[in-house]
Specification:
By secondary structure, this protein is mostly helical. It is 67% helix and 0% strand. The N and C termini lie far apart (66 Å).
Length: 307
């Protein structure tokens, strides 16, 4: 019987560092080891160009707010202030226009309408998503149909309603008409429909009613969607210009957007002051988006997950 001779092969000693490095190499896609492909580079270029198209106007507005009127007109092609001055912001603070009153009016109107939308939209969406009643599909179809109607169509009917209620030139005129949001109902209804029904069935077995299930189970599970709707509702009210112009009559009761239009005179425009007002109007938007960014991302990520 012929024996089989074996040779001793020297193997490298496996240390924890070596094992970790090999695991990282195995998990790394082969395409990434070769560097980015042409399609990836093209995608990066497109994203960079789109980012510049969004960032450059914002930077231009901020820099122009630190210019004098003469510099803003003479050197309009250059974004660099020459000289750098805070004259526009000082004029806004010490001027005759109550810009901080407009700012507070916008904050109050946006917060109040957002709260009303969250209440009405969440209740309506839960009923359409979880409850069974006659005509549910017809009601939902009618709500969706209102999204196809241009908002300007409702301008005259809403004005007549507000006028008959005596709400002209008040905060109720710019908050209550938009409190029933068809988009909010549609948005939350789609999210509620994707929640697992097993949790609600277990709660019903324990004796919980519809209202308790809605408040203690559905709402906590839907915080990303509710936060997203809150941000969108606040921004919609904050940026509204046409409707406040019609229903707010006193200068001190104006919101920020129609109030900023007052800064542009009939025969001349103070570009530095207008840009400074635009910067002030953008600050709450940036703060709210920064605070709610995680909730918005979670809402978008879970929108396509079927429970």
């Amino acid at each position: 019987m012929t024996g089989i001779s074996t040779e001793t092969v020297d193997r490298p000693t496996l240390t924890p560092q070596t094992v970790a490095r090999r695991l990282r190499e195995d998990r790394t896609p082969r395409r990434s080891r070769r560097g980015p492909t042409g399609a990836t580079l093209a995608l990066y270029i497109v994203l960079i160009v789109m980012s510049l198209l969004i960032i450059v106007p914002i930077v231009w507005i901020v820099l122009t707010s630190f210019k004098t009127d003469y510099d803003a007109i003479k050197n309009s092609a250059s974004p660099i202030p020459n000289p750098f001055t805070l004259q526009a912001y000082q004029t806004l603070m010490n001027g005759q226009e109550p810009i901080f009153r407009w700012f507070l009016n916008s904050l109050a109107a946006g917060a109040l309408q957002t709260a009303l939308i969250l209440v009405t939209a969440s209740l309506g969406a839960y009923a359409l998503a979880r409850l069974d009643f006659a005509g549910k599909r017809i009601v939902f179809g009618a709500i969706i149909a209102t999204l196809l109607v241009p908002p300007v169509i409702f301008l005259i009917p809403n004005y007549l309603i507000v006028e008959n209620l005596g709400w002209l030139d008040s905060i109720w005129a710019i908050t209550v008409p938009g409190a029933a949001s068809a988009f909010g109902i549609f948005f939350l209804r789609q999210f509620f429909a994707n929640l697992p029904s097993e949790i609600e069935e277990a709660a019903r077995i324990d004796g919980a009613g519809d209202l308790r299930i809605f408040l203690q189970i559905v709402i906590p599970l839907s915080r990303p969607a509710i936060a997203t709707l809150a941000v969108l509702s606040f921004l919609n009210n904050w940026n509204d210009f046409l409707w406040p112009v019609y229903v707010l009559l006193s200068p001190q009761n104006l919101t920020l957007q129609p109030g900023l239009s007052v800064l542009s005179g009939a025969y001349s425009t103070h570009f530095g002051i207008v840009m400074a007002g635009a910067v002030i109007a953008a600050i709450p938007v940036l703060i709210i988006f920064t605070l709610a960014q995680r909730q918005i991302v979670d809402s978008v990520a879970s929108a396509g997950v079927k429970g």
